[in-house]
Amino acid sequence: MEQTKTQKSEKSTVLFLTVTALFIALTYLFTAFINVRLPIAANGGLIHLGNVPLFIGAILFGRKTGMLAGGIGMGLFDLLSGWTLWAPFTLVIVGIMGYTVGKMTEKENHQNYFWYTASIAAACVIKVAGYYAAEAIIYGNLLSPATSIPGNLVQIGVAAVIVLTVIGPLNSAARKTGLK
Q1: 44 phi and psi, to 5 degrees?
Q2: 3-class DSSP state of 38
């Protein structure tokens, strides 16, 4: 029996919602529970692995999943961990990061390590510039945000190494199981 166009659309919507919810949860969990607080930044700073599921979700499932997983997953962390002031900035900055990674790697001919690396590098620039601007607004000066740059670079660098190591097999698995 053939599926109707409506049934295919409903199946696609359910798959999108399920996958995206999973990556929102993973991004939150990796941010909340796999982290190290830094003593160098004005507010303590935080290095976490939340970018790992964010980048994987964006690369495997595209810009919408990346944007929602990043913005909501890490924004939720800010709301639930006492960093409430940061939540609106995180929602926008990390949402843009996820969108960018997904957008750059969505095309079939962009499913390779060059594009994965380029998209993560773009996300790094967005993170550094975005959080620099956010800290400048929050703290009212242009000097203190510079202390967060090393932590942001380490955070994205570690995530890049992990993601680039596992994304090939995960991409193959997603294709074989019909998720992609």
Answers
A1: 95, -35
A2: coil
Report pLDDT digits (tens) over 43-65. 556 789 999 999 999 999 999 99
DSSP 47: E
Q: How many CB atoms lie within 10 A of CB 154?
A: 13
pTM check: above 0.70: yes
Nearest residue to 117 via CA among 172, 82, 159: 159
The gap from C-alpha 47 to its chain's centroid, in whole angstroms, comes to 14
Those residues whose C-beta lies under 8 Å from the C-beta of residue 3, and which sit 6 or more positions away, are: 11
What letter does residue 140 receive in the DSSP assignment? S
- Per-residue pLDDT band for 37 (boundaries 50, 70, 90) equals confident
Distance CA 53, CA 74 (A): 11
